[in-house]
């Protein structure tokens, strides 16, 4: 199993570290445009191998895509992150050009790869990859919902004053400050609906805190987050590499599912060796359907800014 990560910045390096620690990939290639950075981070990570007990081989490359040849999974984290006060959508001007260029170079060397898009605005970047690479739709996956769901579960565990591992829940919709749809109605603590423990108002607060999870961290850090994003990406790569048939909300091309067409947005999917094995259509109530529709309208507005 060979995994390439383009962008050896905060998220790319964190993702490489988690993949290495999980020890399921034989080879991890980090590639960056900045001279020496990917090589340096790869060497630094390799020097943790004996400490962390992994056998994955990590190498770095400054913009030499021949080193990425034959990758089973590629991850795109190249691009600029937002600064406090910005939205993810404001990154489109710079990141669209980077994602288009990087994805086309990756495909030249790994035509059958599964591509995971992380760069923001992620749903629109995933749509751009669909429009420009010719990869089949099961092989293009946008990462956002896995991270947003992890943040949702964290916020729920805070509210419930319980261990995070007690909590289950999912966030669907666009990966944006206003477009996320945390499914509070379906969230549980050990199979008991969280509404049995938390008031409507407290659940509303959890939902709002989840939606601005990325913005909250950006304000604290001065740039966007990387540990949970890196861990979330590594979970998707793991599910594909080990054919786990595991469910995650991911941004995928919809063709009628959830009443939506020609858009990439977060919905539950099953991940396995073919990338997206299937899209899971869950029964939403009227309020949830309205939220998804509104979220999709927001994503479409951003997609319209693409020069396709
Ligand atoms: N989808 C998500 O859930 C999620 C989560 C976190 C961050 N992000 C996004 O991921 C992106 C990266 O964030 P970060 O914090 O790692 O930023 P960063 O600045 O730390 O790293 C980005 C890296 O990309 C490299 N790069 C830029 N153009 C390149 C190119 N053409 N080819 C190869 N490498 C190139 C840069 O040199 C840099 O090292 C941002 O767009 C951010 O908004 C998305
Ligand atoms: O918030 C950001 O801009 C980065 C990322 O999308 C996140 O949710 O952490």
UniProtKB/TrEMBL annotation:
One of the GO BP terms on file: tricarboxylic acid cycle
Keyword Disulfide bond (UniProt): no
Top-level taxon of origin: Bacteria
Keywords: NAD, Oxidoreductase, Tricarboxylic acid cycle
Catalytic activity: (S)-malate + NAD(+) = oxaloacetate + NADH + H(+)
Boundaries of every Lactate/malate dehydrogenase N-terminal domain copy: 1-142
Entry EC number(s): 1.1.1.37
Lactate/malate dehydrogenase C-terminal domain span: 147-302
Pfam families: Ldh_1_C, Ldh_1_N
Entry keyword Oxidoreductase: yes
Residues at the catalytic site: 175 (proton acceptor)
Binding site for NAD(+): 7-12, 32, 95, 118-120
Described function: Catalyzes the reversible oxidation of malate to oxaloacetate.
NCBIfam families, per the entry: MalateDH_bact, PRK06223.1
Protein name per the record: Malate dehydrogenase
Organism: Gillisia limnaea (strain DSM 15749 / LMG 21470 / R-8282)
Gene name for this UniProt entry: mdh
